[in-house]
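Subject: design request, 298 residues
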């Protein structure tokens, strides 16, 4: 694994801490539970409370270290939903999963109302694609509750982000944004140990931008925070597959591409990977690690 400047030992959450992998260990896996009817790869599969809970439990059994539950699609060109509808989709799922497992629960939302409700029902983490900028009350909620936070970079909004995204230097500009958010959180009284940062693969980036961010993911470790990458099933992977097989990628092929690139991210020392198919990624990482070292990581 590639050494880096800062190596945080843990990510402090609302009531506990998650031990982060050392540079010679495998990344943690954050399993995705979308309760939306319109998410880009699995929209509509887990809209019922019972099926969403069962899916979450199956991800834990497959090796998820964290569950990320979301009730609003942030796919390109998606429309927002109001707080009441988003909470209707996620509230009971958060409550049940937080009581039925010890796996830390993350709420994937940009709304303070939804975040507060989820934290009151057992969630430990706020995962906000707007970098906690979309709702003026979000930073206060994070500070008051002591929740772990994951702040992501996004150029524009889900509705506009893929309309001609442009950067002079995507890695440098995303890095600067995340550093500024980290400083803003510190000024608001949020301890650095509670902050995780995400460069936002696929959020206001072209295919080339995404490849650059993936190639240089280790740069973000210099921020001294846990780094999360959410590359699972993203469009740039579909494009890579299509360039190879000369047709549209199937779901299985996107999951294979996700697992393969997860190995590259593990090699760069990334702490957390947010993925749909936990079992496939876990298997790929374990096989990769055991095949490249004489000291087994199994």
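Subject: RE: design request

Done. Sequence follows.
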């Amino acid at each position: 694994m590639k050494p880096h400047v800062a190596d945080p030992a843990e990510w402090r959450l609302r009531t506990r801490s998650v031990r982060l992998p050392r540079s010679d260990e495998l990344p943690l896996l954050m399993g995705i539970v979308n309760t939306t009817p319109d998410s880009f790869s699995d929209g509509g599969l887990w809209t019922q409370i019972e099926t969403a809970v069962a899916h979450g439990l199956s991800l834990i059994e497959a090796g998820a270290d964290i569950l990320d539950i979301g009730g609003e699609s942030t796919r390109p060109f998606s429309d927002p939903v109001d707080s009441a509808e988003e909470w209707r989709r996620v509230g009971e799922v958060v409550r049940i999963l937080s009581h039925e497992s010890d796996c830390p629960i993350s709420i994937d939302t940009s709304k303070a109302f939804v975040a507060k409700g989820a934290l009151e029902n057992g969630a430990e983490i706020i995962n906000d694609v707007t970098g906690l900028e979309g709702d003026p009350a979000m930073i206060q909620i994070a500070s008051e509750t002591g929740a772990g936070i994951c702040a992501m970079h996004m150029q524009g909004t889900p509705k506009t982000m893929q309309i001609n995204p442009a950067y002079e230097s995507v890695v440098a500009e995303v890095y600067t944004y995340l550093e500024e958010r980290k400083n803003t959180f510190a000024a608001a009284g949020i301890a650095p140990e509670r902050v995780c940062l995400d460069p936002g693969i696929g959020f206001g980036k072209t295919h080339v931008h995404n490849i650059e961010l993936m190639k240089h993911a280790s740069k973000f470790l210099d921020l001294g925070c846990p780094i999360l990458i959410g590359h699972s099933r993203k469009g740039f992977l579909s494009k890579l597959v299509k360039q190879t097989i000369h047709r549209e990628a199937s779901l299985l092929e996107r999951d294979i591409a996700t697992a393969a690139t997860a190995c590259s991210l593990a090699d760069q020392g990334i702490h957390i990977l947010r993925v749909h198919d936990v079992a496939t990624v876990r298997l790929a990482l374990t096989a990769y690690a055991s095949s490249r070292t004489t000291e087994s990581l199994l």
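The radius of gyration is 18 Å.
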